[in-house]
Amino acid sequence: MKKPLTALARLGLLALTLGTGLATRAQTYTPVTLTGFTEDVIANGTGAVSATTTADIDGGAAAPYTGYCLMAQNYVGPAGQVPNSTTYPAATYPALETSGLLTSALNSAITYQLASYSAANALRLVSANATGTLTFATPRTATDLYVLGTSGNAASALNLTVNFADGTSQSFTNQTIADWFATGQTNVVRERLGRVSRADNAVQYTGSPVGPRLYQLRLTLAATNLAKNITGVTVTKPLAAGNAIVLAVTAGAAPTCAAVPTGTSAVATTTS
């Protein structure tokens, strides 16, 4: 005889719908436009590095800054220095994209948008207890924040605080950004970038065969904060060691499931 299985069929269809939806709707990642950068540490265009940047990555807390910076693919020094030569081809030793859009080596779905190479593009923290806030141009929700940065002269210990529009915050203490020539790290976004001197405009690929490197910190928000608009991230360097450089933030968001249809039912029958 025929037996109605209305409730069971509806549960089955619901499970199938949810399963299919989740399988095809992956987490999304959106680069965040930020304000609050303090220094330009990326050489670009034609001219002396000291003219196209305002500070270095591995120098002291104050001028004169005579250390090294990162460089864009369009950098050309006063004597014709360029990021890549036949000895260091771009395919193996890529300078930063002229567009400033970087794709993570950890997950190709995650991209980072660097700020203009012709303006302040880094939050540079050198002294103990130095702090700064990167403010979101447009507050937004997220499940995770991915923070892009590096460190000169040594690893930098960091405490990060995610600030919300309702005045609350979530802290992420005891974070570490490795030195830009460190090895053995598992959170490397880009490597073999090369660097250029503010002192003499020399392009350098010596030292660690994988450096300079950029790293990612993942900040996973608590369930109670997922619906809150994020207004910015405050970064504090509690110790003297290292020059912390924060370059970008990308927001991760979980997929939004479609509403389950109501007011309809499916009736399945079976014969026994």
What does this structure look like?
A hairpin with a 4-residue loop joins strand 11 (156-164) and strand 12 (169-177). With 272 residues, the chain is mainly beta. It has 2 helices and 19 strands. Strands 2, 8, 10, 13, 16 and 18 form a 6-stranded antiparallel sheet that branches. A 5-stranded antiparallel sheet has the order 3-9-17-11-12, with no helix packed on it.
Question: Secondary structure elements and their pairing?
Answer:
Elements: E1 2-4, H1 6-24, E2 28-31, E3 34-35, E4 42-43, H2 49-52, E5 68-71, E6 101-103, E7 111-113, E8 123-125, E9 130-140, E10 144-152, E11 156-164, E12 169-177, E13 188-190, E14 195-197, E15 203-204, E16 214-220, E17 230-237, E18 243-253, E19 269-271
Parallel strand pairs: 4-5
Antiparallel strand pairs: 1-19, 2-18, 3-9, 5-14, 6-7, 8-18, 9-17, 10-16, 10-18, 11-12, 11-17, 13-16, 14-15
Task: Please identify the structural class as seen in this structure.
Answer: mainly beta
**Helix coverage percent:** under 10%
Mean pLDDT: 88
How many structural domains are formed by the residues?
1
What general outline do the C-alpha atoms trace?
globular
- Count of DSSP E strands? 19
Largest pleated sheet:
6 strands, antiparallel
Strand content: 35-45%
Q: What would you report as the Rg, rounded to the nearest angstrom?
A: 24 Å
Flag low-confidence runs: 1-5, 11-24, 258-272
C-alpha termini separation: 5 Å
Please work out how many helical segments DSSP would assign.
2
* SSE series: EHEEEHEEEEEEEEEEEEEEE
